[in-house]
Amino acid sequence: xxxxxxxxxxxxLAIEWVTHKHALAAYxxxxxxxxxxxxxxxxxxxxDHNLVAIYESLVALHAMVAPWIIRVHHSTPRLLLLNWFLTxxxxxxxxxxxxxxxxxxxxxxxxxxxxxxxxxxxxxxxxLRPILIQFGMLASIWRMLVAVDMTNTLYFHxxxxxxxxxxxxxxxxxxxxKLYMVCSTxxxxxxxxxxxxxxxxxxxxxxxxxxxxxxxxEVVDGSLQGSVLGSGVFAxxxxxxxxxLGIYNGTLNQFQSLVYVGIKFTNMTPWxxxxxxxxxxxxxxxxxxxxxxxxxxxxxxxxxxxxxLNNLPMTTFAIPNAWHNLLRLSLSNLxxxxxxxxxxxxxxxxxxVQHNALESLPAxxxxxxxxxxxxxx
Length: 377
Hints:
This protein has helices at 8-18, 21-45, 49-70, 75-111, 128-157, 174-200, 212-215, 220-223, 226-229, 249-252; strands at 207-211, 235-241, 260-266, 281-285, 306-310, 328-330, 350-352, 373-375. The chain is α/β, with parallel strands linked by helices. It folds into 2 domains: 8-200, no CATH class; 207-375, Ribonuclease Inhibitor (Leucine-rich repeat, LRR (right-handed beta-alpha superhelix)). Helix 10 (249-252) links the parallel strand 2 (235-241) and strand 3. It is elongated. 26% of the residues are buried.
């Protein structure tokens, strides 16, 4: 019998639609696709192999078990079993795994190993990512509560759950369901095979901080081995090291996905070579640079949009033409008596020139249509 609380026909139609095998299979394909994309991203960004194994195993379990639940004959237990099963999977992959693998390590970096005055991962879409993660967490919790409520509703309005007989769905399209079962099961096996590969490959670190004082030696090149760290390093910080010539070009360009480079508290004087093509943020602070190093003079990619040159013994300063893509520039504590005349020719959004010997800022800055902030305090 159909449930008949207030509007029997609408309730029957709704239950019939949401419990239809094809509807459940279609929804499951979408959810499994999203989880698979997240699993691949998780495997490439999380260093802890145990967490990667747990995450991919949950997605593989979803892929191999859910099709068999959809094949259950009675619509009520089919809906309840699938909803509970997917709720538990979703809760773990959207809440527990990100909390343990991402939030806890990030809190450690921000509260314990806070090497940067600001996050190095600035991006126009950066505020969107935590919102989406939080939405997934809330959705999985809401889904679990709905599963409890649905169980109680069906229990009180129907017969025994295993014997509840809703309008039976058509058997047409069984071939499509069988194809879905085979493909989903095979995809689960593919995930398990890829998991075995992920457990034996080298590390894939995203953030690397070489603090020579902390590790007890000055060999920066020895600490930056692509075969050990992986080629997908996103952010690199080198601090408190004997680095008179900067990071060697061959060492730096092992990491072709490098977006952030920070060099702090070194004795660097010249620095030659070329930045990796993906570098967008360059921070050099507390070095012995008396002029802009050669690596920042030419052959810069359009990806470089942020440059911090702070606390350096520069009394004069010239802006190279290669900086034409810069949006954020900091020249703090350089003992500058004046700013270069061509500074107004660049599309800067933010300019920081605090703690210099400037008597005033150029009047032309007021006419720069792109400039949002100029701090000369």
